[in-house]
From TrEMBL:
Transmembrane segments: 20-43, 71-94, 115-134, 196-213
Xref: InterPro entries: DUF4328
Keywords, comma-separated and alphabetical: Membrane, Transmembrane, Transmembrane helix
Domain DUF4328: 59-218
Protein name per Swiss-Prot or TrEMBL: DUF4328 domain-containing protein
Presence of keyword S-adenosyl-L-methionine: no
Length: 232
């Protein structure tokens, strides 16, 4: 007879998301700072262009224009690098809390655990699927009443985070396209204004993401402390 496989209890399958959550929060703060730097760089561009429009200047000082353009480009590169790093760590954290939710209550999960990663890379569907996964994780993690009764926790942090992230992503893409198309001074100035608004919106989305990550991580810690089996 083949040897029986070693027994693995649900408790042994749980892994703390605390470390990843702290890393995500730090990166989100850095992302917000990079967005703020982009706002300042955008204001510098608009100030420079405003002088041209208001004073009727035909040209802009080349050295000053180069400095403003280089600053704006550098802030954009910084935003992209921070966004990539934050996205990778956030998805690792998201996968971790999804796997924990499978132990807490698999019946609440509408999609397989692998979708916690894959859902972010499906065009168009990535505007919906991660929210569905987050909803299931949130519900399973909220069952923390010591008497086994259902605990209702408001999904406002989930909805605010997701709504801000989707709106910020879509508006940032639109603003970037408009900025790339702008040619005349007024068009560039208007496009820079839209980029400013997009960067400010990204800061709001980062703050709401921090609140969501911290709340869900704390809920999972409370849930794990009570036992890992689904509560009746």
């Amino acid at each position: 007879m083949p040897a029986a496989p070693p027994f693995a209890s649900p408790q042994q399958q749980l892994r703390s998301p605390d470390g990843l959550a702290k890393a995500v929060v730090i990166l989100l703060v850095v992302a917000a700072v990079s967005d703020l730097l982009a706002v300042l760089a955008g204001l510098n561009i608009r100030s420079l262009l405003g002088d041209v429009l208001n004073n009727g200047l035909a040209t802009i000082d080349d050295a000053e224009a180069d400095r403003a353009d280089n600053l704006y480009a550098a802030s954009g590169v910084l935003q992209l690098l921070v966004l990539l790093a934050t996205g990778v760590v956030f998805i690792l954290w998201f996968r971790r809390v999804r796997l924990n939710a499978e132990v807490f209550d698999a019946s609440m999960q509408q999609m397989k655990p692998g979708w916690a990663v894959g859902a972010w890379f499906v065009p168009f569907a990535n505007l919906v699927l991660p929210r569905r996964i987050a909803g299931g994780v949130w519900t399973a993690s909220a069952q923390t009443n010591t008497d086994g009764s259902w605990r209702t926790v408001s999904a406002a942090p989930v909805n605010l985070w997701w709504g801000a992230w989707v709106c910020s992503s879509l508006f940032s893409r639109y603003a970037s396209q408009q900025y790339m198309k702008a040619e005349e001074v007024q068009e560039i100035m208007d496009a820079a204004g839209r980029m400013l608004a997009a960067d400010a919106f990204s800061i709001v989305a980062a703050v709401l993401a921090i609140l969501f990550v911290r709340k869900l991580t704390r809920m999972q810690g409370e849930r794990a402390a009570l036992g890992v089996y689904p509560l009746s």
